[in-house]
């Protein structure tokens, strides 16, 4: 199953600092899941000022439970960067 995920960072004064401190561990985790075929594409969401304040990704997992397990184990979640998720099931065209 394919999913579109919008993950929003916290809005407190330390949110960006947490993101930057955790970024290397998060990217290493993403790389592992991308190599396994679970992460199709993703990137940071930006504020009007160009500051990272969330993430968007398209993912492919067997079911919603597997996606949730990934999201809940990601360093951004474990370290309080991602605060909320908007998840929508989707289907990419075969092009």
TrEMBL record:
| Family annotation (SUPFAM superfamilies) | Dimeric alpha+beta barrel
Could you tell me the superkingdom of the organism this chain comes from? Bacteria
Residue stretches making up the YCII-related domain? 1-91
**To which protein family does this belong?**
Belongs to the YciI family.
Q: What is this protein called?
A: YCII-related domain-containing protein
